[in-house]
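Sequence only, no structure available. Ideas?
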Amino acid sequence: MEVAYLAECFAEDDTVGTIDELAVDVDVKPGTYRRDGGDRGWTVETGKTVDVTVSVKVAATGARYGDKRIQLTVGGKDYRGKGPHAIKLPSRDADWTMKVRAVLSDGKTYALSRRTLWIRAATTASTTSSTEDALRKAKKKLDKVIDDASSTFSDIAAAYTRLQLVEHRLAIATTGVGLYEGTQCATSHADATATDCTQIVTKVLQLTLDKLGRKDAWKKLHEKAKKAMKARGARKLSGVDYQIALQDIEGWTGIYWAPDPAYQIPDAEIEGAKPSEANFTHGFAKKGTYYKDWHVDGTTKGYPGLAIAHVVVDYAPEAPNAGFGDASKTVATTSQLTKLAKLRFGVLSAHGGFHMTIISDGKVIEVHWDKEATDPDVIEETDFAKWAIGPISGYHYYASGAIVAPKSDVAAAFP
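Reply:
I predicted one. Tokens follow.
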């Protein structure tokens, strides 16, 4: 099998030529899997013994590499084969790098993957129960809002949104595996439901409409979104398509957002758009539209786009980290941002629908499609003003977009 890379290979492996493409899986029990920065690994208790199991398979066929061809290195010791390998942990805090190597079809040994064991003092039972207790209390409070007859659409939708996050993390706290995993995560768990940025939004909308006795409304919204999709010559629904449906059928109001539209972010730092997109779309937003008459062929008209009533810009001038570029000269203004933070619930899109999520009370709640079920941040909540800023570069990787929300809510937030 001829490929150009290994799954999870590192820089030193880039010179590998014609070899099998491998899928690597590492599991540590007992341990709490988490992601910290750019690393992945397990938090484990000092002085304990853990079982580490390694699986290396040919991605194309699913055939497992034999034990004699697999090597695991942990804490300076080598272990041969799949395992499980019983590994005694030190009695002090430490970070151990687990390295997986394999003898491949070319007869040479290559490093395939790295994981980390974060070895820490045991978490007390009271701390664990406290975490679970807090999540259970949050769930109870959200359930009460959902069942309250006086709750508005936005109250219920906001509660359902946070309930997805709370229930996922509660499942991790009690079983080690959450309810959800990203649709493109590296390791799939049988008990987790695959989801992505669009699916959480549509799920919340459907749950809310069903709760309010409007089950047929979702079908109408979905059909309208598909018509909008066809009007722009596409075959896949986008966030803007759904926003158009919400404006057309539910009468929702549109809001344009861009932290610093005059600043052109370097092409390599932005996702799903050109560096000029924020400035370009801002010009139309000031006149009241977003992506109106856009089509994949660049000429066909008819896409309704969004009607924009309010513009929220210049609230976070670009301030790249050292070595990545010059700081923006834009003067920060947060008056509109303060109003936006009062919005109870809204559906947000970035870069013409490249990304879709929910905004509620100044927080963005989104799904990360590459995170696994053991990661609490499969669903993550972030302050809108600090959202979508690359930790390495310091640039906004989503630089503009639109929000739609119930008309009465927007009127109350933007008097």
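Residues 1-19, 123-128 have pLDDT under 50 and may be disordered.
Hope that gets you unstuck.
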